[in-house]
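Notebook B, p. 112. Complex prediction, attempt 2.
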Amino acid sequence: MGYAPLFFKLGPQTRFVIIGGGHIAFSKSETLIALGAQLQVVGKTILPELKVFVEGVGGSVIEADYAPDYLKIATIVIAATDDAALNETIYRDAKAQGKFVNVVDTPDLCDFIFPATIKRGDIQVAISSAGISPSLARAIKRKIEYLLPWNIDALGQWIKEKRDVVKKNLKGIQARRLFWDEVLDGGIAQEVVEGNNAKAETLFAQALSEAPAASRAALYLVGAGPGHPDYITVRGTQLLGQADVVLYDRLIAPDLLERYARREATKIAVGKSADHHIKTQDAIAELIETHLRKNKIVVRLKGGDPGIYAHAAEEMDIARKLGVPYQIVPGITAALGCAAASGFPLTERNGASAVRLLTYYDETLYSDDFWKSLQLSRDETLVFYMTTRKRNTLIEKLLSIGYKPTTPAVIIEQGTTPNHAEYEATLGTFIEIYGDTNFITPTLLVIGDVVRWRATHSWREPAAVREDWFAKNTKEVADVT
Ligand code: SAH
């Protein structure tokens, strides 16, 4: 169980009743008054300054022994006495009357907790660490404080004034959303914050006259990178924020959607892997087409780079045939991410002068051209995608066409993620050591002299646990299909 962040509406009938009259009650009173709450404080002895404060802001103070009847008018009860037994009694009485209650500094007796807050007029930010560390929540608050202009509320009020004219001019929710995103991310909002209202008006009028008035379709194939959530590009995150629909692969960082996609966007898991065929490529194509026809902005979020083993051409074809604009937003492909995280280069001076990104299908075994070309690239770095299960046959074949048994080879499991793991041997010893190992997908096989650098240059500590970091993306799938 956790805490759900909600903003509580303060109506004329909303009353907070604080039981207690000492310093704890005082500090809670200040918090609540700052939030704009109506307050009643009940306590046997009440600090004079607390009385003055509460009455001074229109609240009421009752000097009396606690009795359950005092809770009746409360919407929310705060037990803030210094007597733990009394606090517990208040808690039970409040629950019996169906009230929400918070016993100060006693998380077990709290229906809710107070977040660290930033309040600038109507704009509020609330931060919680689930009670684990108020200091951490405050540290986060300080960071956010720096990011928010002091008069961010002025921007809020300015938007309020403009809402009707935007609604009148731009039909369609998507058109309005994109317009506001542009206003807020671009220079217009900055002018408002800096108090240059006339300039803001001119820019605003111009932007509104130029904005597309109706919803439009677009397809973006966005590379999410190999697994580390920070390895997506800035452009990728921007487009995720614009998407009406996100069709996402299994091999993306589990948090990416939560971080960058809109809560209201439709998110559909279409992940494929050797074990999980959630949606066939045809079904994915159909989904893309359906949403494009409905004038949606579709982001196809793919692991690694959208142009590497990822059906990019077929998917773009759908948009092209419909006459819908499309774009590829590149990502860090697994080969680059895994090698970097393992601490070795893919080419080197006086060593491998080229790197090949490859995969190995069953029928490849009978392709003479494939093996001939590999025979000529024995000094290059070979990176095999989707090949770990067939590694033994591949390695035997490479040895048979003249690859040296001393050539280093490494399998990288869940590269760049917190569960990143490396399994190194040589072509001559790999089968003996790892022939039967069950690796956790995704895995990449890298063969070549460059791999030897990881012995000295590897910079990651081995993962503490061996589990499937991408599993969350697969589980969600079950809910969708
Ligand atoms: N478009 C992706 C590749 C898709 S094919 C890219 O550019 O990386 C899927 C294969 O990529 C997997 O079977 C695996 O071989 C490789 N792969 C993807 N992410 C990986 C990771 N984090 N660690 C190791 N291999 C990965």
